[in-house]
Amino acid sequence: MAADMQFDAIVVGSGISGGWAAKELTEAGLKVLMLERGRDIPHQTGYETEMKKPWDMPFRGVGNAELYEREYPVQMLNRHFTEYTQGHFVNDAENPYATKAGTDFNWFRSYNLGGRSLTWGRQSYRWSDYDFEANKRDGHGTDWPIRYEDIAPWYDKVEDFIGVAGAAEGLDQLPDGQFLPAWPLNAVEQATRERILGNWPERVLTVGRTANLTQPHRGRGQCQARSICARGCSYGAYFSTQSSTLPAAEATGNLTLITDAVVEKVDYDAATGRVTGVRWIDRKNGTRAQATARLIFLNAGSFNSVHLMLNSATEAMPNGLANTSGVLGTHIMDHPSTLSAIALMPGFEDVTSYGNRPTGVVIARYRNMDEMDGVGHTRGYSYQGGALQSGWTRGKREAGVGTDYKASLQPPGPWRVVLVAFADCVPRARNRLTLDRAQSDPLGIPQLNIDFAFGKEEHAALAQAKADAAEMLTHAGGRVIMGFDRPGPGGSAIHEMGGARMGWDPATSVLNRWSQAHDIPNLFVTDGAQMSSSACQNPSLTYMALTARAADRAVDLLRSGAI
Amino acid sequence: MPETPEQSTGWQRRDFLAGAALFALAVGIPVAGVTLSDLDERDAPTERQRLMMRLVSQAVLPATDTPGAGDVGVGDFVIVALAHGLEGTREPVGSAEMPWTFPEYQRPDGSLRYVNWLEATLDRSANGDFIRQDTDARTRTLAKLDSEAFAEGGDAHPWRKLKALILTGYYTSRVGGSEELRFELVPGRYDPVVPLEPGSRAWSSDWTGVEFG
């Protein structure tokens, strides 16, 4: 590989935001190098288990528990991790990270082309000014330097390109978007929606807004209602880098993609105050390479972008790249989430559904909006879940053997509603990432060290969410059989974010309102690291919109000669 | 390789591989998936234990208008699954939680040798020889064990995990998944409201329903 590779721009990471950066920058005419630390997974031909049935799999789709315990002890906890999808997750044994004493953090990762865009939950929600004003309002964290009106046109652009199916509800806290036809609610969900609305008009249960195509869209096929998305989808029916942004970037002829390239450092020139390129290690053979560019976008994933910046410290920037503020690595977040309630829903014994809808339902946030009605917390929570009929696995909990028992497991099981709460995570300085100089990964790079704990606000929000969920489902005619109010370990929502926050003041934030480093004008960080607060919505759509917005800004600055 | 006491019980690795190949033939699993290269030889089953697991599986899910669990190789599936710790079966179990077990069936790491435990438990319950019982008697023996395991306070009873693996083996087999239940990998559409006719069979490909049981 040439040691003097020169590009207009380098994008580090090929996941949800990296794919968008590559698409936008190449479509603007820039010659772009996109680096991916993991292996290539080509669209369609790379989805090796997509069409497998359980009986085609060595461990019936359940997987080899002994192997998982040894090599995937964290990843195996991911809901989407199965024998079919294990190749889309990292091997934990080969990709270690450190945690501070007392920190329990599950860091779910996909080191492969497309990153977590292959395995994401596809829920796509706009944030609102309740979210962008949250820090200013209650004083936690730093004020966002943007508001909804700044990002709204970029949401439009992203939704139009990726395809988001959803129902318009006219809610200020969950703004409507450019939607494809919504997936329908099933009978139980429809009744639950109406019964909740009848008592609490501000609590709106609507179908989950998801990046699964309800009709053919921009050359991609319609969703086949399989709901096995994390295996990869040859129809291209959900948004991933492979199905959507990568083909667009490649069509320009301006993209160079290198996989198996673990970026180790970003080069910084103290004389010009600019970043000049990146260095990487080929993970297959250990060789080193580098490339230069006028513009660098970091999209390695929230924690890995921060890791790379910390590891790129120089004499001129001894605390890490673009870290004269000292806040790099701080204020990391993840949504505290828990199973708030499961309820049996009698009265629907004569109906079922057909096909696997690739989304659940959401109950939009309703707390701490115009009235501060949270108990012990100042922000929001919302629920995701749905109504489902239990499958054969219910038999594991039921007594019986023989013919009658077998017959009892033949029809669909009783309807149940599941509500999982996701709450805002308060940004706190003490929740932070550092480099662990004492421990290296197999490539010799210092490990990331995670120090994280939820605080009393998150616990209070989930306690109120549990009580509300039980109240709503009981009112809707259900019998609540279980509910929790304690969050899972940090990282469980797979919405880890922050660490290179946006802010108005270069003294207290890493990035400005354009996702651009205050310290280094040709460095942009447009993945989750840039987030100043967490909201309670899934964040990926916002990462995409901010990436498109930042790319547009960067191209303008390049063209004007400002960077 | 030096002779070990385990090998002298009749177990040879090649025997198991031959059994695995038959199993694979029966249920269509690649043989590579069920070889046990790292199996602790003390976990290797005797032929009697393989027969017992087949009979036990068949008693839990017998042949009806579709074949039973024993018919489709679930006995061997459970043995393979146990060797690889499915359903949490390699986790240590404390004797305080498990009044039904005896130390002689626990490994040094505290996990249970489920097959050995089951064999001893069923033989004891069957006055000496579970395998020699007739079909109805075996079903009664298992029903007794099952009701004990699912009685109040039985959460940690080892039978629950064995039964769970029997269910997994059956409903993820071609017969269990697509004949006893229905299977459609590519539904093609989502119909939110469909009348549920009496006698309807559930979809084993309803992944959410299976996940949330």
Automatic annotation (TrEMBL), chain B:
UniProt keyword list: Membrane, Transmembrane, Transmembrane helix
TM regions (residue ranges): 16-36
Organism: Aurantiacibacter zhengii
Keyword Transmembrane set for record: yes
InterPro entries hit by this protein: Gluconate_2DH_su3, TAT_signal
Protein name (Swiss-Prot/TrEMBL): Gluconate 2-dehydrogenase subunit 3 family protein
Pfam families per the UniProt record, alphabetical: Gluconate_2-dh3 (PF13618)
